[in-house]
Design brief:
Length: 139
C-alpha cells in the first residue's frame, strides 16, 4: 500500500511525515465540499531520501503488515464484542434474568474493552518486527 505525505519535521535521519486521513467516501462527496474535517496522521519514518521539510514523499507499507494492522484494529475487537454480546445474552437468558439483553450488552462492551487491551499485547508478541514504513520517492 502506498500513500502520499508531506514532511513536517526532520530530526537527523528520522522524518516526521503527515498524511491526510482518507474518508470512507474517498473525499469527493458533496459533504466534503461543505467542510468535512480532514484529520492528519503523523508518522516517524527513516529519511532514506534526504527529504526536507515541505517535500512530498510517497511512503509504502507491505500489504501483509497492513493486513495485520487491520486485523488487530478492526476484526479482533468486532469478534470479541460479538462473542461477549451473544454469550452474555445466552447466559443471562438461561439464568431467567428479566433484562438479559441489557446485561448481555454490558458484557459485550466489557469484551470490547478487553479486546483492545489484549490486541495490543498479542500484536506486540506476534510481531517480532515492528510495522515498517518506507519512503519510496520524492514527488
Amino acid at each position: 500500500m502506498e500513500q502520499k505525505g508531506r514532511i513536517k519535521k526532520v530530526n537527523g535521519d528520522i522524518a516526521e511525515v503527515a498524511f491526510v486521513k482518507k474518508s470512507g467516501c474517498g473525499g469527493n462527496c458533496s459533504g466534503c465540499k461543505s467542510g468535512c474535517p480532514s484529520d492528519m496522521v503523523l508518522i516517524s519514518i527513516e529519511n532514506t531520501l534526504n527529504a526536507s521539510i515541505g517535500d512530498e514523499v510517497l511512503v509504502s507499507i507491505q500489504d501483509k503488515t497492513f493486513s495485520k494492522m487491520t486485523f488487530w484494529a478492526y476484526f479482533f475487537p468486532t469478534v470479541m464484542t460479538l462473542l461477549g454480546l451473544i454469550g452474555g445474552i445466552v447466559l443471562f437468558k438461561s439464568l431467567g434474568m428479566k433484562n438479559y439483553e441489557l446485561y448481555g450488552s454490558a458484557i459485550g462492551f466489557i469484551f470490547l474493552l478487553l479486546s483492545y487491551s489484549l490486541s495490543g499485547r498479542l500484536n506486540k508478541k506476534s510481531n517480532k518486527n515492528p510495522f515498517t514504513f518506507e519512503m519510496i520517492k520524492k514527488i
